[in-house]
Amino acid sequence: MTKNKQRIQRMTLAAFFAGIEVLMAFTPIGYIPMAGLSITTMHLPVILAGILGGPAFGAGLGFVFGMTSLIRATMEPSVTSFVFSPFITVGGVSGNFASLLICFVPRILLGVLSGYLYRLFLRLMHKSVPAAALSAVINTVLHTAGVLGGIYIFFGPQYASALGTGMQGLVVLLLGVVSSNMVLEAILAGVVIPVLVRALAPSAVRMGLMERTA
């Protein structure tokens, strides 16, 4: 396969992944609201992109994930949307530059680290399926921790007030998210991602995105 044809296929694949991410973002497929936060499946295409296409490919889709979060928070604001959008003011609390950090940094790192950790585990295990599962689970946990940690560090008191609780109540809420939402998202990623990697890896190899694996 010529390099030009591979480049066209990669661009097509990137557009396909971005389209899936946008579709999920603006339909019930992507977010399931729960107590001021959401269980999300939006992390799955980003992890898959990082594994199949590498860290840079994953970073690009992570940026799309962050952009859809920003647009949703701005166009469909809730009482806590200021943590994801600098353009929203709720109850006298405005988003700021930290909102952009929360919105984009964990999502971009999700794609980057998915690519790097998958390749690291693949070298150690020599099997694509367990490497993909482990990378998916770890990166889901890191992503959730990054988002929740950013909310707590930059907007803790304001976020607690928006939810009608104090800082102690916020800590309980965040721990609840860690013990429920994050666990469900990690399990989902650990099950779905290896199946998709196994199915799509041959195509990724033909495009020159991945090396042939076991």
UniProtKB/TrEMBL annotation:
Gene3D superfamilies from the UniProt entry: 1.10.1760.20
Highest taxon, organism lineage: Bacteria
Keywords tagged on the record: Membrane, Transmembrane, Transmembrane helix
Transmembrane segments: 12-32, 44-67, 79-98, 104-121, 133-155, 167-197
Single GO MF annotation: transmembrane transporter activity
Protein's name in the database: ECF transporter S component
